[in-house]
Design a protein that fits this description.
The protein is mainly α. The protein contains 7 helices and 2 strands; from the N terminus they run αβαβααααα. It has 2 domains: 62 residues, no CATH class; 70 residues, Non-ribosomal Peptide Synthetase Peptidyl Carrier Protein, Chain A.
Length: 159
């Protein structure tokens, strides 16, 4: 769906135009704290907007804030933290859209929430095939219990 890389040169030109006296924000391809700092410094923007990198990974905002502040690299969220985020997201999705549509619309997010976790694939397959909120919560509970038993580990932190 998304191809190529964002072209920040025009953003930089607008920001550095002496006739422009408003804050300029940049957006596109920011998927790590290091990239956020690099783009901010290179193009001189006043702020950044995060898009796709935040889908299923809301921790990116705190990670970028910490890195911009003092170059702190925060650890990736634990599997347990991801499970809790999915539970809350599912709950709010159902509240907003109703059970059927809320469940269906959540399906696209499970991959992002659980990206980089070993042994998650069969659980994710169950999450995207059930239409019952209680069953989804049962699968999430199995994942949470599996964390305590050491069944899951984060093998990749790239998002």
């Amino acid at each position: 769906m998304y191809k190529g890389e964002a072209d920040w040169t025009l953003i930089g030109e607008v920001k550095n135009n002496p006739r422009i006296h408003i804050p300029i924000f940049g957006n596109g391809d920011i998927n790590s704290p290091q990239k956020a700092l690099g783009y901010k410094n290179k193009y001189g923007v006043d702020g950044l907007m995060i898009g796709r990198a935040a889908i299923g990974y809301p921790w990116i905002f705190d990670q970028i804030k910490a890195y911009l502040k003092d170059r702190t690299i925060l650890p990736p969220p634990t599997v347990a933290e991801r499970v809790e985020a999915v539970r809350l997201h599912l709950e709010k999705s159902i509240e907003w859209k109703g059970e059927k549509l809320g469940i269906v619309e959540m399906r696209r997010h499970y991959t992002n929430y659980f990206k980089g976790i070993a042994n998650i694939k069969p659980y994710r397959a169950r999450l995207v095939t059930t239409m019952d909120a209680q069953e989804i919560n049962d699968v999430l509970e199995e994942i949470a219990l599996g964390v305590n038993k050491g069944n899951f580990e984060i093998v990749s932190v790239e998002h």
